[in-house]
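User: I need a structural model of Oxidoreductase from Fodinibacter luteus for a docking pre-check later this week. Nothing fancy, just the predicted C-alpha coordinates so I can convert them on my end. Input:
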Amino acid sequence: MAWWRRGRGQQAPHGGGDTTGARTHLADFVRTRRGVEAYVEPATNVTATTLVLIAHDGEWTRRALPSRPTAFEVARSLDIPVYDVNQTGYPARMREWTARQRRPKQR
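Assistant: Understood. Predicted C-alpha coordinates for Oxidoreductase:
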Protein backbone atom coordinates (compact mmCIF):
# COMPACT_ATOMS: atom_id res chain seq x y z
CA MET A 1 0.00 0.00 0.00
CA ALA A 2 1.55 3.24 -1.12
CA TRP A 3 0.30 5.33 1.81
CA TRP A 4 2.51 3.28 4.20
CA ARG A 5 5.69 4.09 2.29
CA ARG A 6 7.77 7.11 3.06
CA GLY A 7 10.78 8.39 1.23
CA ARG A 8 14.14 8.59 2.96
CA GLY A 9 14.43 11.73 5.04
CA GLN A 10 10.71 12.51 5.21
CA GLN A 11 9.10 13.19 8.53
CA ALA A 12 7.12 10.51 10.26
CA PRO A 13 3.64 11.27 11.59
CA HIS A 14 3.69 13.41 14.73
CA GLY A 15 7.25 14.52 13.92
CA GLY A 16 6.62 18.19 14.41
CA GLY A 17 8.82 20.87 12.98
CA ASP A 18 9.51 23.06 16.00
CA THR A 19 12.22 21.52 18.16
CA THR A 20 12.46 24.33 20.74
CA GLY A 21 10.43 22.56 23.43
CA ALA A 22 12.21 19.25 22.91
CA ARG A 23 15.64 20.91 22.94
CA THR A 24 14.82 22.75 26.18
CA HIS A 25 13.61 19.58 27.89
CA LEU A 26 16.61 17.55 26.74
CA ALA A 27 19.08 20.28 27.77
CA ASP A 28 17.48 20.45 31.23
CA PHE A 29 17.76 16.65 31.57
CA VAL A 30 21.48 16.75 30.68
CA ARG A 31 22.12 19.70 32.99
CA THR A 32 20.47 18.02 36.01
CA ARG A 33 21.85 14.46 35.66
CA ARG A 34 25.24 12.76 35.48
CA GLY A 35 26.64 10.53 32.75
CA VAL A 36 23.92 11.15 30.17
CA GLU A 37 24.11 9.36 26.81
CA ALA A 38 21.82 9.79 23.80
CA TYR A 39 20.23 7.06 21.67
CA VAL A 40 18.56 7.87 18.35
CA GLU A 41 15.47 5.78 17.60
CA PRO A 42 14.33 5.51 13.97
CA ALA A 43 11.02 6.82 12.72
CA THR A 44 8.28 4.29 12.08
CA ASN A 45 4.97 4.56 10.29
CA VAL A 46 3.41 5.53 13.59
CA THR A 47 6.10 7.53 15.42
CA ALA A 48 8.63 10.19 14.55
CA THR A 49 12.37 9.88 15.03
CA THR A 50 13.02 10.13 18.76
CA LEU A 51 16.00 10.92 20.92
CA VAL A 52 16.26 9.01 24.19
CA LEU A 53 18.56 10.37 26.89
CA ILE A 54 19.72 7.92 29.55
CA ALA A 55 21.48 9.01 32.75
CA HIS A 56 24.12 7.03 34.68
CA ASP A 57 21.47 5.47 36.94
CA GLY A 58 19.18 4.46 34.04
CA GLU A 59 16.67 7.29 34.37
CA TRP A 60 15.57 8.24 30.88
CA THR A 61 13.49 10.62 28.83
CA ARG A 62 12.37 10.62 25.20
CA ARG A 63 11.41 13.39 22.79
CA ALA A 64 10.31 13.34 19.15
CA LEU A 65 12.39 15.22 16.61
CA PRO A 66 11.75 15.91 12.93
CA SER A 67 14.53 13.72 11.48
CA ARG A 68 17.48 11.45 12.18
CA PRO A 69 20.05 14.14 11.28
CA THR A 70 18.30 16.58 13.62
CA ALA A 71 18.40 14.01 16.45
CA PHE A 72 22.15 13.51 16.02
CA GLU A 73 22.69 17.28 15.79
CA VAL A 74 20.71 17.91 19.00
CA ALA A 75 22.69 15.25 20.89
CA ARG A 76 26.01 16.59 19.64
CA SER A 77 24.99 20.15 20.57
CA LEU A 78 24.43 18.88 24.14
CA ASP A 79 28.02 17.58 24.08
CA ILE A 80 27.08 14.03 25.08
CA PRO A 81 27.84 10.65 23.47
CA VAL A 82 25.25 9.67 20.87
CA TYR A 83 24.46 6.20 19.52
CA ASP A 84 22.15 4.68 16.93
CA VAL A 85 19.89 2.34 18.91
CA ASN A 86 19.72 -0.02 15.91
CA GLN A 87 23.47 -0.50 16.21
CA THR A 88 23.88 -0.64 19.99
CA GLY A 89 20.54 -1.51 21.55
CA TYR A 90 19.50 0.01 24.88
CA PRO A 91 21.74 -0.19 27.96
CA ALA A 92 20.62 -2.61 30.68
CA ARG A 93 20.50 0.23 33.22
CA MET A 94 17.53 1.72 31.34
CA ARG A 95 15.50 -1.49 31.67
CA GLU A 96 16.54 -1.87 35.32
CA TRP A 97 15.48 1.69 36.16
CA THR A 98 12.11 1.18 34.43
CA ALA A 99 11.56 -2.08 36.34
CA ARG A 100 12.35 -0.33 39.65
CA GLN A 101 9.78 2.38 38.85
CA ARG A 102 7.07 -0.24 38.29
CA ARG A 103 7.58 -2.01 41.62
CA PRO A 104 5.16 -1.10 44.39
CA LYS A 105 6.72 1.18 46.98
CA GLN A 106 7.64 -0.52 50.28
CA ARG A 107 6.35 1.22 53.41
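Before docking, keep this in mind: The radius of gyration is 15 Å.
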